[in-house]
Design brief:
- The chain is of the alpha/beta class.
- The chain has a single domain, classed as Alpha-Beta Complex (Spore Coat Polysaccharide Biosynthesis Protein SpsA, Chain A), CATH 3.90.550.10.
- It contains 11 helices and 7 strands.
- The chain has a 7-stranded mixed sheet, sandwiched between helices.
- β2, α3 and β3 form a beta-alpha-beta unit.
- The chain is globular and about 45 Å long.
- The two termini are 24 Å apart.
- 46% of the residues are buried.
- It binds guanosine-5'-triphosphate (GTP) and magnesium ion (MG).
């Protein structure tokens, strides 16, 4: 089975070599999986994309900034039946992928997310970030009944049908909680597993207060509207939905977050 490892990157030149190196391509191959490494260059100005290409990755350029925009472009342009994610900043333990992929396959899991709070290494997360994460995770649990302790974790491993069935709208950091909540609301078999989380290399792009407010707003708005993803459940063509760049363009108009002004866009170029 082909595993696509999709990694969003905004000015991560100094981290890209180690990020690509950490993806256990050989181990996955020995377990019968081919790996496609997809770096989504999100308008970097430091040559991140070119360096990733030189190092053998497939590079998708998403010129419109935003974590969610980067992922949407990456997912629409990757081919794996299984999709794995993580940041380009050396924080996530990509070495666990072979084990996680077999757990997904053997236990019939559709969407596996990870809990960093269970394995924080010293200095990996500031106090404000930690409490922000805990607070947002608690709100998500209360509003949607999701079982996740870490709604902001950026490492997920899931079957392609999860992505192609959901209708996700967040162009910014809220994409992380939205994909988890919508996968759960859709009825996919979701689990969370503990991981270690290490201090980031290079500069953080995160704006704790703006992103925190933006995420809270997104949760409240999402709660007020019926799950578009869940409504789609049962449609015969759901599996094909949004799975191609063309389908993206034909989809609903983009939404603009009133807090961070991040737009949800179909954008992707190679
Ligand atoms: N914040 C942010 N990150 C982006 C964007 N586009 C791509 N990214 C990448 O998305 C990943 C997550 O961003 P980070 O800055 O690491 O955010 P974080 O993980 O919440 O915060 P840290 O704990 O500081 O790592 C990184 O690999 C970024 O390079 C963007 O527009 N904003
Ligand atoms: Mg990070």
């Amino acid at each position: 089975m082909l595993v696509s490892v999709v990694v969003p990157a905004l000015n991560e030149r100094e981290n890209i070599p180690q990020t690509i190196d950490a993806i256990p391509v050989e181990k996955l191959r020995s377990e019968g999986h081919d790996t496609e490494i997809v770096i989504v260059d999100n308008g970097s100005t430091d040559g991140t994309g070119n360096l990733a290409r030189k190092l053998g990755a497939k590079v998708i350029v998403q010129p419109v900034r935003g974590y969610g925009n980067a992922y949407m472009a990456g997912f629409a342009n990757c081919s794996g039946e299984i999709i794995a994610t993580g940041d380009a900043d050396r924080t996530y333990p990509f070495e666990i992928l072979p084990e996680v992929v077999s757990t997904l396959e053997n236990e019939n899991i559709d969407f596996l997310t990870t809990n960093r709070l269970a394995g924080l290494r010293p200095g990996a997360m500031s106090r404000s970030h930690l409490w922000g994460n805990k607070g947002l995770s608690m709100v998500a649990r209360h509003l949607f009944g999701v079982p996740f302790r870490d709604s902001q974790s950026g490492m997920w491993v899931f079957r392609r049908k999860v992505w192609s069935s959901l209708r996700l709208r967040s162009g910014g950091m809220a994409f992380s909680q939205e994909i988890k909540v919508e996968a759960f609301r859709y009825g996919f078999n979701c689990v969370e597993m503990p991981i270690t989380y290490s201090p980031r290399g290079g500069e953080s792009k995160n704006r704790t207060i703006t992103d925190g407010l933006c995420n809270l707003t997104q949760l409240l708005i999402e709660r007020m509207r019926p799950s578009v993803s869940a409504e789609r459940r049962g449609y015969a063509d759901a599996a094909a939905f949004l799975d191609t760049p063309e389908a993206f363009q034909a989809a609903d108009p983009p939404s603009i977050c009133s807090v961070c002004s991040n737009q949800t866009v179909p954008g992707f170029t190679y």
